[in-house]
């Protein structure tokens, strides 16, 4: 009998850390964690198996099929928006071909198991491309069908992978004599900027918020790369993990979308600065916009409409801006840097 496992790619990433820790806390340990670099020591003890592997390596997945019955796939591995702009073709290979490899694995597993394997895919607000600041301000909370014209390779990749997910769920091998019996149970969330107290992001264009907080807590100066008036949706990492697990547990029959918006709070960079200055009055933060990265963030919405997630799978954030700082970020981050 093959061992039943939950497959998590991108294990070393910010979301990977949060998800593996939460699953372990929930008593779930049949985790197979994969990352291109050796999985962090702190995570290995929470996993049944931690593999160093490349999601572009099909042989890796062929080996897994023979040994494991994959119950759910959380495909978190990705090259984020800023990094992807420096290596767009490599990002496309990893973000799209990598996802295609995982979708193929999921389809094969669905056939073996006689049921649709759940495939949780983190999409992003980067799929939105709001044309200009005037429209961004007027648009307010954007719906999933608004402004789907991404301006980054990462945003293009994420939007296309949502479309691939729908294809693998509903149309894969549609001309075959024997139609695909189960498909993939593809479920996706368009995450806002995520702020973790435990890890520091790298390669994202929404990183200005977590970078500002972590640098202030280390009493290090920080030049914020966006204007003070820059406003996009953010979320505390525990809520991002809560959303992934809620969507995974949701009744398929209630789901009306392939990809869902979720929101929590949407402060401007200046409002985040003011909160930090109250907590770390001596912090040396100033605003030196990187006009190229600023241009990307200005195409992302000021806020998102998450009515569908509320209706379809009872989404509700635990952390608003104030609680995120008071009860999650500052206590954990201050402890982390006091050592
Ligand atoms: C990024 O900045 O690229 C990501 C995102 C918004 O998806 N954090």
Architecture overview:
The chain is globular and about 65 Å long. The longest helix is centred in the N-terminal third of the chain and has 26 residues. 44% of the residues lie in helices and 17% in strands. It is of the alpha/beta class and 339 residues long. Helix 2 links the parallel strand 2 and strand 3. Bound molecules: 2-amino-3-ketobutyric acid. 2-amino-3-ketobutyric acid binds next to loops.
What distinguishing features does this structure have?
13 helices; Rossmann fold; alpha/beta; 13 strands; 339 residues; binds 2-amino-3-ketobutyric acid
Which CATH architecture of the domain at 78-192 and 235-264 and 301-318? 3-Layer(aba) Sandwich
Element-level helix/strand string: EHEHEHEHHEHEHEEHEEHEHEHEHH
Helix-residue proportion: 40-55%
Class per helix and strand makeup = alpha/beta
Radius of gyration: 20 Å
Distance between the termini: 47 Å
Shape type: globular
CATH fold topology of the domain at 78-192 and 235-264 and 301-318: Rossmann fold
Give a brief outline of the structure:
The longest helix has 26 residues, at 88-113. It is globular, with a radius of gyration of 20 Å.
């Amino acid at each position: 009998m093959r061992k039943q496992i939950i497959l998590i790619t991108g294990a070393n990433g910010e979301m990977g850390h949060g998800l593996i820790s939460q699953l372990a806390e929930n008593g779930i340990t049949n985790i197979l964690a994969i990352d291109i670099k050796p999985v962090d020591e702190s995570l290995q003890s929470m996993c049944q198996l931690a593999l160093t592997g490349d999601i572009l390596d099909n042989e890796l997945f062929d080996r897994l099929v023979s040994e494991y019955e994959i119950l759910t796939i959380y495909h978190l591995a990705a090259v984020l928006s800023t990094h992807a702009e420096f290596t767009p073709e490599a990002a496309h290979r990893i973000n799209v071909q990598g996802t295609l490899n995982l979708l193929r694995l999921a389809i094969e597993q669905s056939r073996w198991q006689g049921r649709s394997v759940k495939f949780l895919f983190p999409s992003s607000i980067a799929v939105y491309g709001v044309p200009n600041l005037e429209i961004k301000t007027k648009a307010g909370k954007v719906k999933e069908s608004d402004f789907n014209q991404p301006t980054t390779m990462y945003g293009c990749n994420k939007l296309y992978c949502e479309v691939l997910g729908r294809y693998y769920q509903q149309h894969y091998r549609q001309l075959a004599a024997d139609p695909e019996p189960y498909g993939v149970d593809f479920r996706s969330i368009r995450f806002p900027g995520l702020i973790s107290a435990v890890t520091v992001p790298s390669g994202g264009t929404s990183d200005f918020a977590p970078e500002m907080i972590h640098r202030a807590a280390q009493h290090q100066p920080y030049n914020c790369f966006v204007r003070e008036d820059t406003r996009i949706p953010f979320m505390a990492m525990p809520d991002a993990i809560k959303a992934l697990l809620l969507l995974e547990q949701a009744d398929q029959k209630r789901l009306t979308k392939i990809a869902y918006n979720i929101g929590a709070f949407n402060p401007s960079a200046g409002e985040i600065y003011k909160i930090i200055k109250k907590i770390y009055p001596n912090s040396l933060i100033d605003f030196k916009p990187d006009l190229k990265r600023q241009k990307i963030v200005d195409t992302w919405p000021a806020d998102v409409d998450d009515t569908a997630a509320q209706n379809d799978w009872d989404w509700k954030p635990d952390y608003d801006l104030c609680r995120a700082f008071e009860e999650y970020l500052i206590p954990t981050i201050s402890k982390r840097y006091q050592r």
